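Entry for the shared binder. Reason: the reviewer on the internal report wants the predicted structure included alongside the sequence.
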Amino acid sequence: MSLQETIAAAREEGRLALIPFLTAGFPSPERFWDVLAEIDAAGADVIEIGVPFSDPVADGPVIEEASREALAHGVSLKWIIDGLLARKGLYRARLVLMGYVNPFMQYGYVHLAKDAAEAGVSGFIVPDMPLEEAGEFRAAVKPYGIAMVTLVGLNTSLERMQAYAEEAEGFVYIVSTLGTTGGTNNAIDHVADTVKTARKAFTLPLALGFGLKHPSQLDVLPPDARPDAAVFGSSLLKHIADGQPVAEFFAPWKA
């Protein structure tokens, strides 16, 4: 099932699709694979696996620290791919790799596309790769049916969204803040206009992320501005770091 179909299936069930983010190698390289399995079992529809990078410009302090620790323990893109390949078929959720251009470029786009497909990866999110620079990467992954997820923000115009829509696949990730992930501002009513604009430009499902901690945050959005999926990362990582059960974090989102 593709990313688009997975989120659409959740919508048909009358619920929000859940897209948790987990930094590869967090909370430790040894524990990571167990936690990934717990997240899958807890009800994730799509799981974003963060590829550690030394300069994660879109990520806040929680994810940045997790990335730094993972790098210090030798976690790499190849480590992730090899680990997923060894566990292929074990996860119900679709898997997406979220990372920055540099590690992907060093791996080699064509080589990465082939290896990622064999490992069961359904998509990529590359925050620092704008539309005009994505052609080579998109051409590498497209033959394998791997989606390159589009990100849009509060300052993305309808015209810009329409340009992205010509190439968009999987789902559209709407960034709810102009800052980094894990922000402290719980008010997201300001994203309503962005969601409505995105509905005009895209036919794909819309996911909302950055700063989400609890489903009650979405209550301020009118029905025509509610996303199809919720992305949460920093809040989940904090929950795991505190030693709390993964299923406990998911419970409110599934209620």
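Summary line for the report: The beta strands are 17-23, 46-50, 94-98, 121-125, 147-148, 150-152, 172-175, 206-209, 229-232.
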